[in-house]
Amino acid sequence: MSVGDEYRIRARELEARAQEWKEAAERATDPEQRKRLTDKAQRVQKQSEQASRVAGQGMDPA
């Protein structure tokens, strides 16, 4: 498995996790909890996008 493949897999995993956090935020009734979950989803989404970019470049992020 190439480095790019590993990053593609990681990006998909992060995307799924971000979606889970988004859905949890939608179900949350407490506004503070909703904000925390939304913020977490956004952070994980950014990580997913970064991993996707690295996968597209086929190189290590360092």
Keywords:
62 residues; mainly alpha; DUF6381
Annotate the secondary structure layout.
Blueprint: H1 3-27, H2 31-57
Helix pairs in contact: 1-2
Percent helix range: over 70%
Low-confidence runs: none
Question: Please, how many domains?
Answer: 1
**C-alpha Rg, in Å?**
14 Å
For the terminal residues, how far apart are their CA atoms?
19 Å
Main sheet specs: none
Tally of extended strands?
A: 0
Overall outline: elongated
* SSE series: HH
What structural class should be given to the helix and strand makeup?
Answer: mainly alpha
Number of DSSP helical runs:
2
Mean pLDDT: 90
- Portion in strands: under 5%
Organism: Streptomyces violascens
Biased composition (Basic and acidic residues): 22-42
Region (Disordered): 22-62
Pfam family, one: DUF6381
Question: Concise description?
Answer:
With 62 residues, this protein is mostly helical.
What does this protein look like?
With 62 residues, this protein is mostly helical. The chain has one domain. It has helices at 3-27, 31-57. The protein is elongated and about 45 Å long. The mean pLDDT is 90.
